[in-house]
Design brief:
Shape of chain A: globular
Structural class of chain A: alpha+beta
Radius of gyration of chain A: 22 Å
Oligomer: heterodimer
Strand content of chain B: under 5%
Number of helices of chain B: 6
Order of helices and strands of chain B: HHHHHH
Shape of chain B: globular
Number of strands of chain A: 12
Radius of gyration of chain B: 15 Å
Number of strands of chain B: 0
Helix content of chain B: over 70%
Strand order of the largest sheet of chain A: 1-2-5-4-3-12
Largest interface: A-B, 53 and 56 residues
Strand content of chain A: 25-35%
Number of helices of chain A: 3
Distance between the termini of chain A: 63 Å
Largest sheet of chain A: 6 strands, antiparallel, barrel
Order of helices and strands of chain A: HHHEEEEEEEEEEEE
Distance between the termini of chain B: 12 Å
Chain lengths: 272, 170
């Protein structure tokens, strides 16, 4: 009987303890120190296991996917050639846009400094879409900085340690980005719908000049969370319900969020 | 008991390391198999409630430190799984040597299907109402199948590590 009581006491105190931790987390993130300590404890084990298993994984993947890799390599070479051509063509237009942006005092994404970072860990759970990158405070990364890859917005930095940072991706269910399209007069909200799901957009009236394939990009408003002009994604589905006055829209992110290897952190502070 | 605790503590660190280094990278149908939820289930099958609850709590907390989801949710899920399965383990259900071959995997599969629901439910406590959009059904299915497959070897390991504590009780 006494043992039953003590067991119940243990479980109740465990649940209460967790609830307190969760409450403290929600109230203000005081648990940052505990998280850092826990990361430091786990790191050597994860690093060692990774060092042992990664080469095995690469070997198996190399054996199984060799034909695909060779084909992919060929495709990438062709894409690189086309991209180089386009980059040359765009250089003049970019210079002109930079001058105009400067004259209008608009921070233009391409004129901002970036920092290349390698993605070290993909989202460790099914319930958040995040990646960990190998750059942190030491290299000037700060909380809230935008992250881009493959010519589009990937997300923003939500946690920074000395040598690593966590990036919340656009498709995370907690991600909301203010965007614009067309002539830039419409402001809409782009929300994440979870891993492997397209982004959703709300608040676009059916009179808006939008079609499948339209590009949405950051509008630079939203209290300055993102600089303007960062491509977010293209419309893949445009639905109008009976009697609805707004579109229900699916958006495919410009950057491939499922296979990020390297990203660029835009060294731009949200408040500036 | 101390020897068991030490062994389980070390194994817990290795399990979290495996979760981060291997299971996070090798997704099944786009879903991460949550070894950190299976480990307290395996320890729970030994029938030592306090050890199972503590293992679930610590494993979850260590994993929470790596995630952007509210801190403490995995700890809560781990502790609850550990407690419930330990109650079953105490009754001899899931005993690897005595029970039928399918019992341990079946218990683990039910735990694998229930854990994501518990996690999303716990998210409501942290005022996060959007966790269910992260592929809840897929997560339940994949974890149930993966837990079914992995349950016996992990339960065997937990049983070996907990053996000194079990001997002390007899």
């Amino acid at each position: 009987m006494a043992s039953d009581r003590s067991r119940r006491r243990l479980v109740v105190s465990g649940v209460l303890g967790t609830l307190i931790i969760v409450t403290v987390y929600v109230a203000g993130g005081v648990v940052a120190g505990v998280k850092s300590a826990a990361r430091a404890v786990v790191f050597p084990f994860a690093w060692t296991i990774d060092a042992v298993t990664r080469p095995i994984g690469h070997m198996v993947a190399g054996m199984v996917d060799y034909a695909d890799l060779a084909k992919q390599n060929q495709q990438l070479r062709e894409e690189l050639g086309r991209a180089t051509l386009r980059a040359d063509e765009n250089a003049a237009a970019a210079a002109q846009l930079r001058l105009l942006s400067h004259a209008l005092h608009i921070p233009w994404a391409a004129s901002l400094n970036t920092l290349v970072a390698q993605v070290t860990t993909n989202s460790p759970t099914n319930f958040s879409a995040t990646v960990t990158i190998d750059k942190g405070k030491d290299e000037g990364v700060m909380d809230g900085m935008p992250v881009i890859a493959d010519g589009g917005l990937v997300g923003r930095v939500v946690a920074v340690s000395w040598n690593t940072s966590t990036v919340r991706l656009l498709n995370d269910t907690g991600s909301v980005v203010e965007a614009t399209f067309g002539n830039g007069q419409n402001a809409v909200l782009v929300s994440g719908e979870g891993l492997n799901n397209p982004l959703s957009v709300s608040g676009i009236p059916i009179t808006a000049p939008l079609s499948v394939g339209s590009l949405l990009s950051t509008n630079g408003l939203q209290g300055g969370l993102f600089p303007p002009g960062l491509p977010i994604g293209r419309v893949t589905k445009l639905l109008v319900g009976p009697g609805a006055s707004t579109y229900a829209i699916s958006l495919k992110p410009t950057a491939n969020l499922n296979s990020l290897s390297y990203v660029d952190v835009v060294l731009w502070e949200p408040s500036t | 008991m101390n020897q068991s605790r030490l062994g389980i503590a070390l194994a817990t660190l290795v399990v979290v390391g495996f979760q981060l280094a291997v299971f996070t990278q090798w997704r099944v149908a786009g879903v991460v198999v949550m070894l950190v939820w299976l480990w307290p289930v395996a320890v729970g099958l030994t029938g030592i409630t306090s050890l199972a609850v503590m293992t679930g709590f610590v494993t979850g907390l260590l994993f929470d430190a790596q995630c952007a989801t509210p801190f403490g949710l995995n700890a809560l899920v781990g502790a609850l799984l550990g407690y419930v399965v330990a109650r079953l383990g105490k009754e001899g259900v899931g005993d690897l040597d005595a029970a039928a071959l399918w019992v341990t995997p079946a218990i683990a599969a039910v735990a694998g299907a229930a854990a994501p629901v518990l996690f999303v439910g716990a998210g409501v406590v942290a005022l996060n109402f959007s966790l269910w959009r992260g592929g809840l059904v897929n997560s339940m299915l994949v974890n149930a199948v993966a837990f079914f497959v992995l349950a016996r070897p992990l339960a065997r390991l937990a049983g070996r590590l907990a053996a000194p504590a079990l001997r002390g009780r007899r």
